[in-house]
Amino acid sequence: MWLLPVFSRVSSAAVRLFYRLTVAGGSIPAEGPVLLVANHPNSLVDPALVVAVARRPVRFLAAAPVFDDPNVGWLIKAAGSIPVYRRHEDPTVMGRNRQMFEAVFEELERGAAVGIFPEGVSHNEPSLVDLKTGAARIALGTREYRGIIPVIVPVGMVPTEKGRYRSEMLVVIGDPIEWSDLTVRGAEDRDAVRELTGRIASGLRRVTLNVEQWEDRSLVEAAEAIWAERQGAGKDPAERVARLGITTKILAEIREHAEPRDRELIRSLRRHLARLAVLRMLPRDLRVNVGFGASVRWAMRRAVLLPSVVVALAGYVLFRAPNVATTLATTAMAPAEDRLSTYKVLVGFIMHAIWTILLAVIAGFVVDPLVGLAAVVGIPFFGVAALRLRESWRGAGRDLRRFYALKARRVLMDELREEQSRLAKGLEAIRVRWSAGSP
Known about the structure:
This protein is of the alpha/beta class.
């Protein structure tokens, strides 16, 4: 368990380098017994995300076969994970789960944080899969056998493209699950286990995006964005996830009830998205102010980037080799979709570490040994700075392209804004009917 004391800091650095991470919602207690329950779309990156936002040591439950995996088993053990034995993998070792429960009870009794993924398996489904009962049995058992009532906190991962480097990753910390009325019942009470499992599932659904099929995600996000823009809704990411959840439910009801007016609205929304996609724009881009004053302020803010172009380009060239090597290696390994980011993080760390050491050795021989030692620390910092600057330049490029489209195609933009306004009114009408219980 040598990695456990520093796992939070290491994980935070790793996931913030791989993703553009945003944390929203509530907070995780800094001390005391906590059971963190999270969705599981992203293999070993999920524990790293949870412990990064927890900001305290967390011991995770992991499937026993992973401990013997030559690629990641060493990491699982180093992080102090607790093995879970599952019937479908080997029914003869199910008795060992008594040791698992005892280990978890002991951790919670001493005021530690324990992480569990109640879905039981990492997956690539567009929504939560049915939860296992382990989390509920752990909570009830801790109260029954140790007299401790752990706080149960749901943690939701909402990725955009989870396997893509520097894509957006939102982690939402939900409100603690209310289960005080169940604390008098034990882990063998099936009704209590079922009820608590249901509450955990509800808590996780409130902090995750759950669509019926992947194709729905862009539709749901666009509908929420258009409606929120018209209503002047808040920009808080956690509130946005809640609105996305409501929008997903409304879409499901539209499909079930097949209202012609609503189906036509959905078709119009899809056509609107297709038109924006051709222009490489998002719904919110139509509302951007491109007046003279706003344009001047934008140009002045971006002007400060000009001296940094050399650093940005130098960083790109310097780290091109390990980046390409990481891509080639992970492609050759052909991991499942839900494990792609895990492989990229681990392989990328190895490739960049080797590359950094190689450059430092060269600098030590060619210039001076002290320069080589300084390079070991300086090169990673330079790489991170160059990465941030390149992203700023890419953002400036997107802004410039959007500015040109809004200025040069004013008639089309006005038409799209009017179309979006009609869509917003239609979406509001659906939402009002849905809120009133009449789909």
